[in-house]
Recover the amino acids of this structure.
């Protein structure tokens, strides 16, 4: 082809057709430039395509990381849910010496803990490698920055406060209680230390104060985890929809499976209603006027999370446990971490409709 172009140029020059030669030369330059521009366009388009695919891959890895963090939080939440009724029993002085012999957890709940270990390596990779985000991707990315740049920091800080509180308590036992060494040999209450341990648990004037304070610190950890989990789950669902990936049904619950919690709860002038079609809402009423509302996120058949975040970035979240009657129907709700006692029993929001 180049030989063909050279022949044309030579013929034009040989025939002394300078004007036509100049026109031809300009045309040839135009074609070369056009070819270069087309090549650059194709190269840029290909680079953008590769960058877009790489960004999608990074979002997929972030999605997997969100699931890993949710699983980590669920492990710790499970531990707190197991401790919740024990705290109620001890703090409301519903224990006898023999209860400690039958259930070591009544005493060891201040000496043991579960810590969260949230990871953000894949988010950092997205932060460094993202390219040409779409409007949808940019919105998700902004939420991810809040989750990892702010919410993870809060969980990590409260996690350390919780660990420090437990360690300080154990240090106090080491320095003040002679029976502690015999307890640690088997990490349980036995005949040798039974009298000393139960006397300490039932009569020490500071024991319940220490328990109340540690439970309060754990509460900060617990609420921070609930907020992180809710935001992380919402982001997981958005990324799955964006990438057209099937959602994990063990995390994303089918609302149709939670018909049993719908209804009106409470007594007196303040009532709570759980309702909704495609999503569940929790509304608090006083004399038929709505005080505030929450989004409901099903956690399991027996537990659900309430979540609210207003425009001022203030948040409120909690977890309820459903109470079932003899017929298997829901008869009420118990707020996790609510230690209040009513008529000698744990406070229940009774179902009235």
């Amino acid at each position: 082809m180049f030989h063909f172009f050279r022949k044309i140029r030579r013929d034009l020059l040989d025939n002394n057709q300078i004007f036509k030669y100049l026109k031809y030369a300009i045309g040839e330059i135009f074609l070369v430039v056009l070819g270069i521009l087309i090549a650059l366009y194709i190269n840029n388009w290909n680079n953008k395509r590769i960058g877009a695919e790489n960004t999608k891959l990074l979002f997929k890895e972030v999605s997997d990381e969100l699931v890993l963090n949710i699983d980590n939080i669920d492990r710790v939440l499970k531990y707190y849910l197991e401790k919740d009724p024990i705290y109620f029993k001890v703090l409301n002085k519903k224990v006898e010496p023999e209860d400690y012999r039958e259930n070591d957890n009544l005493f060891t709940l201040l000496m043991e803990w579960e810590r969260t270990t949230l990871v953000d390596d894949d988010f950092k990779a997205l932060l460094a490698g993202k390219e040409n985000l779409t409007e949808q991707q940019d919105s998700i990315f902004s939420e991810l920055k809040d989750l990892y740049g702010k919410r993870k920091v809060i969980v990590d800080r409260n996690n350390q406060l919780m660990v420090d509180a437990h360690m300080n308590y154990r240090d106090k036992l080491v320095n003040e209680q002679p029976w502690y060494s015999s307890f640690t040999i088997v990490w349980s209450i036995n005949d040798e230390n039974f009298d000393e341990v139960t006397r300490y648990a039932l009569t020490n004037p500071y024991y319940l104060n220490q328990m109340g304070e540690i439970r309060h610190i754990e509460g900060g950890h617990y609420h921070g985890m609930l907020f992180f989990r809710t935001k992380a789950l919402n982001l997981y669902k958005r990324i799955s929809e964006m990438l057209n990936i099937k959602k994990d049904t063990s995390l994303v619950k089918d609302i149709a499976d939670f018909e049993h919690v719908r209804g009106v709860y409470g007594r007196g002038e303040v009532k709570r209603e759980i309702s909704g079609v495609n999503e569940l809402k929790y509304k608090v009423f006083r004399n038929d006027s709505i005080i505030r509302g929450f989004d409901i996120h099903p956690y399991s058949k027996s537990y659900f999370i309430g979540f609210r975040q207003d425009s001022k970035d203030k948040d409120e979240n909690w977890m309820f446990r459903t109470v079932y009657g003899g017929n298997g129907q829901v008869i009420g709700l118990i707020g996790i971490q609510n230690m209040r006692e009513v008529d000698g029993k744990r406070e229940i929001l009774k179902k009235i409709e």
